[in-house]
Amino acid sequence: MHIPQDVRRQTTKRKIVDAAVSLLSTSDYHQITSKDIAREAGISTGSFYTYFDNKKDILVEILKEYVLNAHISPDEPVPVQTNSLPGTELLLRTIVKRCFALHDFPPGFSKNILMVSLSDPDVQRIYGEYEIAMIGDIQKVVRSRIPNMGQSRLEAASIVIYSAVKGSIHSIKFNQPSIDETVLVDELITLLQSYFNSFS
């Protein structure tokens, strides 16, 4: 069966990206070469350069997709109260679930992203865009529940909430504590609910 060229190209590009994620999950970013990624993907080094200029190009592409997925569409409704969960708790769980899902990389890969973002301006900029997107979404959620909150306090509260979620994610991803992730998330929700209730 004939496979269209654009489908073949997309398949090959995906193989390269998946190979890079696999290698970056087990090896230091600075020790991996484009040749290593091509070998892992099962293609020639020349084919690699048809799709990417270097390994940083791949990392940037992955992060751009990461940032794109972080944005909530302006038309996406804010979750409303259900019979099983109070509205505030549902909103907080939505935020936490979204943040955790967007960090669903192997621990080694997450560490590489963080380390490269500290030294590379391009990666740092994209990583910063992701954080801005998440804080913006949190502001949208807080504003939906407390419409009269001043802008300055709204921004500060959103940063505090994001920082608490980010810290919990880093604890799970980087420190790999023995505590179950579900228990940690439940405690995080309890903490955020108390903070949220203090706005009243």
From TrEMBL:
This protein's record includes keyword Translocase: no
DNA-binding region per UniProt: 33-52
A GO MF label: DNA binding
Entry keywords, A to Z: DNA-binding
Highest taxon of the lineage: Bacteria
DNA-binding recorded as keyword: yes
Domain HTH tetR-type: 10-70
Database matches in PROSITE patterns: HTH_TETR_2 (PS50977)
PANTHER family: ACREF/ENVCD OPERON REPRESSOR-RELATED, ACREF_ENVCD OPERON REPRESSOR-RELATED
Protein name: TetR/AcrR family transcriptional regulator
Lineage of origin: Bacteria, Pseudomonadati, Spirochaetota, Spirochaetia, Spirochaetales
